[in-house]
Structures are given as C-alpha cells and as structure tokens.
Amino acid sequence: MHQTFDVRTDRRLEVIDVTDRVQSALPSGYSGICTVFSRHTTTGVCINEAESRLLSDIEHLLGEAVADTGWEHDTLDNNADSHLRALLVGNGVSIPVVDGKLDLGRWQSVLLVECDGPRTRTVTVATP
Q1: What CATH number is given to the structural domain containing 116?
Q2: Confidence band for 5, pLDDT divided at 50, 70 and 90
Q3: Were 124 and a residue from 13, 37, 97, 114 both cysteine, which residue would form a disulfide, CB within 3.0 to 4.6 Å?
C-alpha cells in the first residue's frame, strides 16, 4: 500500500509534526512496518519529541550546523545549505505498526523537517 499527503510549509527552516497524518494513511488493522519518506532533496523526516521548544531547538541546531552561504552548489540555485541540512536529517524512517497504529514511544512523533521553504511538500507512507 502506498499513500501520499501534502504539507504546506511557511518558513525556510521549519519542523512540523506529521504524526497524525501518517497515522491516517495507514490501513486499518495492519501490523508490520511502514516507511515514511520525503520525496524531496531539501526536506527530511525524523522521529523525535514534538515539544515546541525542542522543535525550535532543532531548527536552531540545523541553522547553526550548516552555513547559509559559501557552497559550490549555490552558483546553481542558491540552496546548497538546504540540501546539506536535509542530508543530516535523512529522508525517511521506518516505524513498527501494530493493529493499524504507529508503535511509537510515549514522546515520539514523526517530524517533517523543511530546509528550503516555504513550499508544498509530498510525504509518502508505504507498507509492504
């Protein structure tokens, strides 16, 4: 099974909790693994806590870890920093599913990390 959903981002660097959208994309009663995948080279997907101050800290960390300018790719389309930040996050995660529900830990959420917004992004949720 394969479902997609779109996420509209508002800022260049932004972390958005998409857990509920991923959960809604799962087949009822399914048990196994789902893969959540970003179809873009300047976004990432990760699992972490969706507490607002932590989301802000993640944005700050990525902003500080990768300089905004000075990259060779910038001569092409001026977004090398976005590609490099997304590379650090990774483009997908695998999550256990039990009886149609994400089997996440108490504080875990599925996060979409926008590194080149604002844009509309497509997220894929796949189950075998």
Answers
A1: 2.60.120.460
A2: very high
A3: 37
